[in-house]
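Contributing new records

If you add data, match the layout below exactly. Sequence lines come first and carry their own label; structure lines follow with theirs. Keep one chain per record. Anything else will be rejected by the validation script.
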Amino acid sequence: MTNFEDLQKNWLSQPVSTSVQQEAITTALPDKWQRNQRRVFWSNICMSIGFLMALIVIGWVYFTFRDKYEWPFELSIAAVYCSMIIFLLVSWRSYAFKKENRGESSIDFIQHQLQKIRWQRKTLTAYVWIYNTTLWFALSIYIMEITKGASFLFTFTAFAVTTLYIFGITLWIRNYRHKKYLIEIDEVIAGLETLLNDLQENEQ
């Protein structure tokens, strides 16, 4: 697989031609970018299936127990639904559904790829925290409602365990699971930015 440097030299050695540049992209797209997009695709597929199953279970809980609880119960269910659906849409935005277009310049194509992978990085560094915080808020309301007849110690324990679990998992994912992944993403971004700058300079 041709690397970023080989692809760059290939482009710079060619006359400025959209068709030639586009052919270089379609035949020599860097392996890191392809691997990244495969990972995004399958990760989102698995997450979509998991979220769908979770939404079905949560819906069953709502219709089964809605008569026993008041509006905080409904609010918590709605918040979970909204946060999961929005996060799923945000995650899928990182995947490049749009493929190469013969009538599109190489610069536009690379800018499109940069937009996707930058969004992917933002998802991992920012939107995961937003999603988990919203989920924590929804679960807190849910716990307060379903344990309102229990002792304070029981409610506090359930709240503390939920809080420690959600934010503990979030920190672990951010500092361990996503750390190497973010380094790979930054490498792809740097490589695409280099190619983009060279192409823009070549067309001037």
